[in-house]
Amino acid sequence: MMNRPLLALLLALVVQGCASVTTLNAAKPGAPIIYSGTRLDWYSLKGGCCPMDRFGVEPPRYPGLDLPASALLDTLLLPFAVAAELGVNLGVSGGY
Predict the structure, then answer these.
(1) Which of 35, 40, 76, 85 shows a CA-CA span of 20 to 30 A to 67?
(2) 38 with 81: CB under 8 angstroms?
(3) How far apart are CA 70 and CA 52, in angstroms?
(4) For the chain (length 96 residues), average pLDDT per consecutive 10?
(5) In this structure, are residues 37 and 21 in contact, taking their beta carbons and an 8 Å threshold?
(6) Do 17 and 44 meet the contact criterion of CB atoms below 8 Å apart?
(7) What is the 3-state secondary structure (H, E, C) of the chain?
(8) Could you read off the pLDDT of 58-79 as tens digits, one per residue?
């Protein structure tokens, strides 16, 4: 069984490439917020031409592999995404 520090390091490396995390950190004006990572993965899988113009970031290297994790994370973050879309200030900050 893996020890906790190794598991935490592995998780941190995986999350850095997660489409949900990268799209929310991009903070591109006009970019989708609700299910942004899932939408970026799907856009990439369907051959979308310009992810930088639409989402502000490049898609992950393996969007099909990232899609289930992004869908889960986007679902967990849905209340915050809806609040942000509606312009409700929750006092939450982060990103770069």
Answers:
(1) 85
(2) no
(3) 18
(4) 65 66 81 91 91 88 86 89 83 62
(5) yes
(6) no
(7) CCCHHHHHHHHHHHHHCCHHHHHHHHCCCCCCCCCHHHHHHHHHHCCCCCHHHHHCCCCCCCHHHHHHHHHHHHHHCHHHHHHHHHCCCCCCCCCC
(8) 888 888 888 888 898 899 989 9
Residue whose structure tokens are 């939450």: 92
**Placement of tokens 């099909």 in the chain:** 64
Question: Whose CA is closest to 37, among 52, 23, 16?
Answer: 23
Query: Residues near 69 by Cβ (< 8 Å), separated by ≥ 6?
Result: 14, 18, 20
* Residue 24 CB neighbours (<10 A): 22
Residue 53's contacts (CB-CB under 8 Å, 6 or more residues apart) are none
* The Cα angle at residue 19 between residues 28 and 45, in degrees rounded to 5: 105
